[in-house]
């Protein structure tokens, strides 16, 4: 079945460091891919998405490119801030999964940014 | 914009008590979901409703029941709470299966 694997955390960085959080997936068809962010004490909110191969999603300085050849959707940011400290979730939605269609989630990666 | 509204935000139950978590969305979404979030385990799907009038089990349905009351509302019931159900519960909705999910703020439930 479909699955999402993302790098384990916690990830600890200094402010202005470069961030990469890896995400790879397996899917039957051509899924949509998402990154969500969860700030402490809050629900998840969509950070960015990509719906087809080679699409790049971007928001708030974060980017991720849908790579079908490597089945990856890695999250990157050039210069992190303390306010980026949160848990990041990679997810996919596979429209070809028949009656089992629903969002598939990675386990989340905790990011802590120190001043 | 209210989005997805969950109530209550916090709850403490004694073992064996029952309660219902309420969820409502005002975005005319077709699909709704209940998740639980536990440390180190990510989000686990309890039940979902792909469309009004249908409900299906997710990964961890035991000990829970759901009702899709109408298109807007999707409730989660714990009939006899157990300490293992201590968790943070999130309701979410999507317009269709391939679109982004919108989440409520969560319910922090403690069963003692």
Description of the structure:
Chain A has 115 residues and is an all-beta fold. Chain A has no helices and twelve strands. In chain A, the strands form three sheets. In chain A, strands 2, 5, 6, 10, 11 and 12 form a six-stranded mixed sheet that branches. A four-stranded antiparallel sheet of chain A has the order 3-9-8-7, with no helix packed on it. A two-stranded antiparallel ribbon of chain A has the order 1-4. Chain A is globular, with a radius of gyration of 14 Å. Chain A starts with a strand and ends with a strand. The mean pLDDT of chain A is 92. With 112 residues, chain B is mainly β. Chain B has strands at 4-7, 10-13, 19-25, 31-37, 43-49, 56-57, 64-68, 74-78, 87-94, 102-103, 107-111. In chain B, the strands form two sheets. In chain B, strands 2, 4, 5, 6, 9, 10 and 11 form a seven-stranded mixed sheet that branches. A four-stranded antiparallel sheet of chain B has the order 1-3-8-7, with no helix packed on it. Chain B is globular, with a radius of gyration of 13 Å. At the A-B interface, β5, β6 and β10 of A face β5, β9 and β10 of B.
